[in-house]
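I hope you will forgive my troubling you with a question about protein structure. The matter concerns a single protein, recorded as an amino acid sequence and a row of backbone structure tokens. Please examine both parts with care and let me know of anything in them that strikes you as inconsistent. Thank you for your consideration; the sequence and its tokens are set out here:
***
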Amino acid sequence: MATFLYRLGRTAFRRRWLTALLWAVVLGAVGLGAAKAPAASDDGTSFMPGIEAQKAFDLIGERFPGTDAKGASARLVFVAPGGEKVTAPGHRAAIDALVAKAAGEPQVAGAVSPFKAGAVSGDGSTAYATVNFKVKAGDLTDADKSSLETAVDKVREGGLTVEVGGDALAEQPEAGGSAEAIGIALAAVVLLITFGSLAAAGLPLLTAVVGVGVSMAAIMALGSVFGLSMTTGTLASMLGLAVGIDYALFVVSRYREERANGHEPREAAGLAAGTAGSAVVFAGLTVVIALAGLSVVGVPMLTKMGLCAAAAVVVAVLIALTLVPALLGMWPNAVLSRATRKRGSTVDGAAGGGTDNAGSRWARFVLRRPLTVLVVCVAGLGALALPVSGLEMGMPGAESKPVSSTERRAYDALADGFGAGFNGPLTIVVDAEGAADPKSAAGEIAEQIGATRGVVSVSPARFNPDGDTALFSAVPSAGPNTEDTKNLVKSIRSERTALEQRTGATFEVTGSTAMNIDVAQALKDALVPYLTVIIALALILLLVVFRSVLVPVKAAFGFLLSVLAALGAVVAVFQWGWGAGLLGVEQPGPIMSLMPIFLVGIVFGLAMDYEVFLVARMREAYVHGDRAPQAVVSGFRHSARVVAAAAVIMIAVFSGFIGAAESMIKTIGFGLAVAVLFDAFVVRMALVPAVLALLGDKAWWLPGPLDRLLPRVDVEGAGLTAPGTHDTGQAGGEHTRQEPARV
């Protein structure tokens, strides 16, 4: 591996203009494809096939032709001024006129006056009408929306308060580069401080932007074919930018070090690709494994997000191995610090050399008291992880929006007028194909569900044209994200067998509330298999990389601490509301169902990233002759500063997404930022050296049969020290350690 990448780096350096041209052609080609590709739209794929709520949704689409269960809707909520009622003649006429105008629009499937549908609160202060559209919210034109908005404004002028819920008129998250721009700006500052050179700071930024450009253009070009959403692209850009900067940072840092050790530019580029590049390859593989592993969860959207982000990481790896050496070839001395350029080929203190720096001093501090450091790390992260025990998963809706939004005000008005459960009605789909009397069967099912404890009301059943399927709604007494509503859904479903035997018809429970409950349960069930898959694959990969049994196990243990602490922080902020106002979280509530499993996957990949970058340098020192404790110090001397800079860059990039309007992206941005903080600065910088100090030479132990079975990938670059491998100097030491005896 190291030898191949060494040659690749030298070739890219020598053929620098051709390499840069090839990447320019790739960027131009995918950019042209993105420009000519039709706009991406929802491909209609089920959100989570197999769960009851999704099957009921699909049944609605099949049995009620012309009605899309996923079609957009606008819930118009009317509130009379203080002391008045919506049933007053003037208010009633205005409401009926608005509903009639909405019902006549070409894209509207139906709208019924609240006075005909019985949608008026008991005290007469509030009423609502639901406008159902034939198409999804993303397919509505500005003309479709403006017509309804104009009619709403006219009613407001008459004195009624009108708020609009649903997704039809909701503001869509804007596609913009503000988060990326913030991340790039902060990364530039960190790189400039780390390298002390504008060129060295700019090169990782330039290559990362190229990589994100290639990835995003490819996603846009293929969006209409594979149904790739804006959220998919946001995740790919988030990870692509973060790892793209980090991977280039490690290669540039190693190049500067090899130049400081006396190697000429082309040789230094080859050595950087052979050593740091090897770590980049395997670090990238761990991230790809974690992201691609999301496909085992069974959520098509999550699979697309994971695979697109994994592809962005692959692009970042390829750029770090080819374009970075090519650009180094164009400006071989520009990335060196000013002091190094003045001194010429002398050892650069920033590169580490053999002198002490903050990294080596910190490593020695940990080595003197490893048990204390280990206990403090585990106890601290364990305390941060405690809120995980109270994790509640759901799908925050309008209640989590700011009170300045009409969706949130509509939500509150409905809760005040009709009760907390009105915002989370359950939709019951009765399949009466096997019943002798479908109407009688549907009526009995509705009556039984209406009598269930916790159900406030049941709407009249609506039949499809064939008369074999009915729809009705059941309003719970509690809010949509409460434990009482979850228990109610279970209770209703438990009545199914008895009702089916009596009526010959069966039913399924769906709607957004039931969907959220089913998704949360399905994701909980998928979490253990998912963790098993990614941890098993990553342990095998790390076993090959480090040729050690205990180092991969330690890495997995550190990851569990990091991810649990990060999830604990997410629960404390987004569910409990600690400091929520500082992050723009208007209303704390349940954590989005997709968030935990998604965070686990990405954090695992990033945690293994830092494990590979840091421990690979320790392994390199150990293989090249250092004793186990000294190898830890050497690894920190060379890598601690760069790993710290890489972590700060990732934190900066992810923090930029905390300001996103999309709640899932906001939560993921925060979760990833704190996860990197915990993993890089607590686990990798403190817990890892403490454990390695306690293990000593045993850390690198590998059973003999396993040693013979595993392939040798030479991540530490031992093969580059062989005579004639490269032109001048040594790759990292004067001799190579014989592998420790295997048991």
Residues 345-353, 727-743 have pLDDT under 50 and may be disordered. The first strand starts at residue 73 and ends at 79. The radius of gyration is 30 Å.
